[in-house]
Design a protein that fits this description.
Two copies of one chain form a homodimer. Chain A is mostly helical and 236 residues long. The first copy, chain A, contains eleven helices and no strands. The N terminus of chain A is likely disordered. At the A-B interface, helix 6, helix 7, helix 8, helix 9 and helix 10 of A face helix 6, helix 7, helix 8, helix 9 and helix 10 of B. Chain A binds a DNA duplex (30 and 30 nucleotides) through helix 3. Chains A, B: InterPro entries: Homeodomain-like_sf, HTH-type_TetR-like_transc_reg, HTH_TetR, Repressor_TetR_C, Tet_transcr_reg_TetR, Tet_transcr_reg_TetR-rel_C_sf.
Chain lengths: 236, 236
DNA sequence: TCCATTCTCCTACACTGTTTGATTAGTCCT
DNA sequence: AGGACTAATCAAACAGTGTAGGAGAATGGA
C-alpha cells in the first residue's frame, strides 16, 4: 500500500458519483457499470478482503491498472458496490400509506438487500452513504417522516435513527454469521455458563437462539417505531 | 527436533479470549496487555489501515513475527483493541436506579468511549463482540432490562436493539467525521440542492448541521427507550 | 550438567494498492 | 486522405503487506 495514504479518503474533491465521468468517443471495454457489477460479484463470493484490483481486472479481461482510469482507488469500488446494493431495494411506492407501515417496509426491505450481500453491512457502517441510491432512500424516508409530522432536528434524528438501527443490526447479524457457529459460539456460551458468577443475568436468561435474527430485528424495529409514533408532531 | 507444541498454537477454535494463554516461566518482553495497548495507540493515530504488524512490532521494540506467538493474526489484534475500548466505559453501578436512566447512561457512555477512538465504530460493526468487557456490557444491559420486565425473545431483541443502535450511530458519525467536511459534504449538499426535483424533501428540509451528532443521537435514543418502555412487561 | 519449554528472531513468499509513462485505437478537422 | 487530438488500455516498477517455517537464545527444572 502506498505510504501516507489518508484513511478512506476519496482522492477527488468528492465521492465517485459527484465527479465528472470520464467518457470519450471510443467505445470502451470497461465501464463503471461493468466494473461495479463485477465487483459486487467478487465481493459476494470472496468477501471484502477477497476483492483485489488484480482479481477484479482479471474477471473483466483487463489489466489491473486500467481500472484506475474509471475509478480513483479501491475505496471508490467499495462505494460503488455498496450503492448498487442499495439500488436493489424496491423503491417505496409514490402512493404512500400509513407512514409507520412505509417505514417498516423500508426497513425490512433494506435489511434483506443488505443481507443478500454479507459484506454490505460492515461497509455501510464504515463509509458515509452518499450514493444516488442511498440518497433516494434518504429522500423517501424523510418524506414519510415529514408526513408523520417531524421537522427540524427531530426529523434528521429520526431518519438517522432508522438508518443506523437497520445498518447496525445487519452488520451485527452478518458479522456473527461469518463465524463458525458450531465452534466459536458454543465456546462462547460455554464460557458464559461456566462464568455464571460474573454473568449471572446472561447465564440465567440465555439468549434465544441467535439464528432467529429476523424476529429480533422486527422486535427492535417495533420498539423504535413505537417511540417515533409517541413523539411524532411534538418536535421542534 | 520439531517442536510438538503445534497443537497449542494460538490459532485454536474461537476468539482470542477463549484460547489458553501462552505463558511460561521466562519473563517475556511481550505480553497481550502491552501488545493491546500499543495497538490501540497506533489505531488512534493512524487508523485501522495504519496498523500493520511491522509498525506495531517496531513500536514495541520487537520484530514483527514475534507477535504471532501471542496472537494468531491481525484480526486478533483488532478484537483485543476493540474490547479494550469497551473496557473504558465506566461500569454501571451495582446500585441501580430507574432502568431507563441506567440504559440511557450506558448508551451515552458507550458512545463516548467509541468516539474517543474513531476506528472503533466500524470495527464494532464488523466483528462479533465477545470480549470480556463486551460481555460485561451485555450482562449489565440485560440486568436492567430484566428489571424492566423483559424476558425471552423480547429481552434478547431489546438488548440487541440497544447495542445495534449505539454502534450503528457511532459508526456513521465516525465515518462522516473522517471525511473532509468543507469539500466533500458541501459538494453533496450542493448536489442535492441542484437535483431538487429528484430529492424534493431533502432539498426542502435540509438536515440540521451534521455536526450536531450528539443531539441526534440523544433524540434517537429517546425514541428507542420510549418504545421499550411502552412494551416493557408485555413480552413473552 | 542436560533437557525441555517458552519466546524472539531471521528469511522468504505471495500478494497488495497505486504511480508513471508508454502505447494503442478511435473520432474530428482540414 | 492525412494529421492532430484524446480517450482508454497496458506494462513495469515500487513500497509495503500478512504470515509460514524454522533457527536461535534464554530460562527453569531434573
Amino acid at each position: 500500500m502506498s505510504p501516507k495514504r489518508a484513511e478512506q479518503s476519496p482522492s477527488g474533491p468528492g465521492a465517485v458519483w459527484l465527479r465528472e465521468r470520464r467518457q470519450g468517443t471510443r467505445t470502451p471495454a470497461l465501464s463503471i457499470e461493468r466494473i461495479t457489477a463485477a465487483a459486487v460479484r467478487i465481493l459476494d463470493e470472496d468477501g471484502q478482503s477477497g476483492l483485489s484490483m488484480r482479481k477484479l481486472a482479471d474477471a473483466l479481461g483487463v489489466h489491473a491498472t486500467s481500472l484506475y482510469w474509471h475509478v480513483a482507488n479501491r475505496d471508490d469500488l467499495l462505494d460503488l458496490a455498496l450503492d448498487a446494493v442499495f439500488g436493489e431495494v424496491e423503491a417505496p411506492r409514490k402512493d404512500p400509506g400509513l407512514w409507520q407501515a412505509d417505514i417498516a417496509a423500508y426497513m425490512t426491505g433494506l435489511r434483506e438487500a443488505l443481507l443478500r450481500h454479507p459484506w454490505a453491512g460492515a461497509l455501510a457502517s464504515a463509509r458515509p452513504l452518499m450514493g444516488p441510491h442511498a440518497l433516494d432512500h434518504a429522500e423517501s424516508v424523510q418524506a414519510a417522516l415529514v408526513r408523520a409530522g417531524f421537522s427540524g432536528t427531530a426529523l434528521t434524528a429520526a431518519a438517522a435513527a432508522i438508518s443506523n438501527y437497520v445498518i447496525g443490526s445487519v452488520a451485527a447479524e452478518a458479522s456473527w454469521g461469518r463465524h463458525d457457529q458450531s465452534t466459536a459460539r458454543r465456546a462462547l456460551t460455554d464460557h458464559v455458563q461456566s462464568a455464571a458468577l460474573r454473568y449471572p443475568t446472561l447465564a440465567a436468561h440465555p439468549p434465544t437462539p441467535y439464528s432467529d435474527w429476523q424476529t429480533h430485528f422486527e422486535h427492535g424495529m417495533r420498539f423504535l417505531i413505537a417511540g417515533l409514533t409517541a413523539s411524532a408532531g411534538t418536535s421542534g
